[in-house]
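Quick start: what a row looks like.
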Amino acid sequence: MRRILITLAILIACVAAVSATWIFRGRQISLFIDRFGTIETNSARIHSIAYEGSGTGGILHINDLALGLNDKNGPIPNIGSTKDGQLGLAAGGKVFPFGPPRSEAENLAAVPPAGDDAFIRIRRSALSWPTPFDLNFMTGHSPSWKRHCYYQVIWKKPSGAKLEMLWRYEQYFYPGNGWGSSFMTHERSTGLIRVDIRL
């Protein structure tokens, strides 16, 4: 009988330790697991791209998505006109041209030229984490779960030039309403996290 009670106590202690780790370190655990794989939820070709800003920071509009470029904790690319008049992005001393600008657009805008292979993938974490201690005193409506969402732009030119951009945001789950917007931010964890240009 004593052996059964000791075994039961150890089991309960292990479950409590795992639960506490999941609650208090869930975000870090989720980020670690994301390094090995995420779940794709959508993929679409890029039909239009527009830039709203002053050249540094601002917002990059890809199809119907608005992706921020203002996170000071990640890369901050420059966007403007290239030497040959195309809309382009510069990072790490390299410039990637998106295409000829559309003159009718209010902001700098372009469409992928013929022959370009440009698409955006939306992925999410395989592991969500519980947030029992998140309280919203303004609305009284707090998320019970959170997970990461990733927006990845992959743009290839016929010349072999390639651009990859990756954003990470948080998505909240509200009981009764399900998963909400996937553009929530968290200090030092979200926003544009990678820009890679290969020429």
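That is the whole record. The chain has one helix and 14 strands. The CA atoms of residues 114 and 141 lie 48 Å apart.
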